[in-house]
């Protein structure tokens, strides 16, 4: 057996220590008891906690509350697999409450009751991914959901209604005389009219309706001057009442074009669905569209309901 001189071992240890502390990645040793045993300086730089704080508290306390269950599952996988690399992501909170997405590679050593892990802060990448996903699901002009998102939501809502014996309503809203607005006042005025209709539709739905400003929202610009709305737990009477309220709200709020005020109108067609609904999402859209054109043919500025057969 060849013995290394003590000086060589110290030099090797010092060299490893320098690499550990210079690394921009989070490097740690954690125990199966749920506490960090060692962390490098990247933890302090990224999370803002001192080494003493990090070592004195269970590491799950630094994890975002919504991810704590997942980290318990990962701990179990790491301890059971033993020496097999496990990769996962979770969110850590820094000392100021900021969220950091961390991408981990971890290896458990059961005989040592230790987990060796390297983490990379991928927050910027996550934010970019979320922004791209939001853009892919949103209408850039109005900020409402786009046709793709609405179609997915309608299919999901219809399946939910069938499975859980729920009801709902689908509304199609079309801006009246939109081409005339564009021709007379220009496309900038037309764009402003579309933004205004989006805002009025969102603001005048009751709180229990799903408003298209978040992940669960179901108000969308379907294209051109056409909008789609989904109302959960709504029957024919409720859908017609909502439609009439939206028509009145838009009529009461004129669009300012320079020094002129332009009165906007909207035609709304609605159809209800429930647990016995046999029509597809496409058929429901077509039915709501037909109901909307009944209003258009009568001069616009109203709502029409086609009840579920």
Put the structure in a nutshell.
The chain is an alpha+beta fold and about 300 residues long. It is about 45% helix and about 25% strand. The longest helix has 18 residues, at about 145-165.
Write structural notes for this entry:
- By secondary structure, the protein is an alpha+beta fold.
- Helix content is 44%, strand content 25%.
- It contains ten helices and twelve strands.
- It has helices at 6-22, 41-47, 51-56, 68-81, 123-137, 147-164, 178-185, 187-203, 236-251, 281-297, and strands at residues 26-31, 36-39, 86-93, 99-109, 114-121, 168-175, 219-223, 226-232, 255-257, 260-262, 266-273, 302-306.
- It has a five-stranded antiparallel sheet with strand order 2-1-5-4-3. It has a five-stranded mixed sheet with strand order 7-8-6-11-12, sandwiched between helices. It has a two-stranded antiparallel sheet with strand order 9-10.
- Helix 7 crosses helix 8 (187-203).
- The chain is elongated and about 95 Å long.
- Residues 207-217 have low confidence and may be disordered.
Annotation keywords:
309 residues; 10 helices; 12 strands; 5-stranded antiparallel beta sheet; alpha+beta; 5-stranded mixed beta sheet
Judged by helices, strands and strand pairing, the structural class is: alpha+beta
| Contiguous uncertain segments of 5+ residues | 207-217
One letter per element, helices H and strands E, the order comes to HEEHHHEEEHHEHHEEHEEEHE
- Which shape, going by the Cα principal axes? elongated
Tell me the helix content: 40-55%
Give me the count of strands: 12
């Amino acid at each position: 057996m060849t013995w290394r001189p003590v000086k060589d071992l110290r030099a090797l240890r010092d060299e490893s220590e320098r690499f550990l502390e210079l690394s921009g990645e989070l490097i740690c040793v954690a125990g199966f008891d749920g506490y960090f045993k060692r962390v490098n300086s990247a933890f302090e730089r990224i999370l803002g906690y001192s080494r003493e704080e990090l070592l004195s508290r269970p590491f799950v306390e630094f994890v975002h509350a919504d991810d704590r269950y997942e980290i318990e599952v990962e701990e179990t996988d790491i301890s059971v697999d033993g020496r097999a690399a496990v990769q996962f992501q979770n969110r850590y909170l820094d000392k100021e409450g900021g969220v950091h997405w961390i991408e981990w590679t971890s290896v458990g050593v059961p005989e040592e009751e230790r987990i060796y892990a390297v983490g990379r802060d991928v927050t910027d990448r996550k934010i970019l991914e979320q922004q791209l996903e939001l853009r892919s699901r949103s209408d850039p002009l109005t900020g409402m959901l786009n046709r793709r998102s609405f179609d997915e939501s309608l299919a999901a809502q219809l399946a939910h209604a069938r499975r859980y014996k729920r009801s709902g309503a689908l509304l199609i809203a079309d801006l009246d005389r939109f081409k005339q607005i564009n021709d007379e006042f220009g496309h900038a005025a037309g764009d402003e009219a579309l933004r205004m209709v989006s805002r009025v539709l969102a603001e005048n739905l009751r709180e229990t309706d799903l408003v298209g400003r978040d992940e669960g929202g179901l108000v969308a610009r379907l294209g051109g001057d056409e909008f789609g709305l989904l109302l959960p737990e709504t029957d024919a009477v409720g859908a017609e009442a909502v439609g009439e309220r939206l028509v009145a709200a838009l009529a009461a709020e004129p669009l300012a074009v320079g020094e002129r005020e332009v009165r906007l109108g909207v035609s709304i067609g609605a159809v209800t669905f429930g647990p016995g609904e046999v029509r597809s999402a496409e058929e429901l859209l077509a039915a709501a569209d037909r109901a909307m054109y009944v209003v258009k043919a009568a001069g616009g500025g109203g709502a029409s309901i086609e009840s579920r057969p």
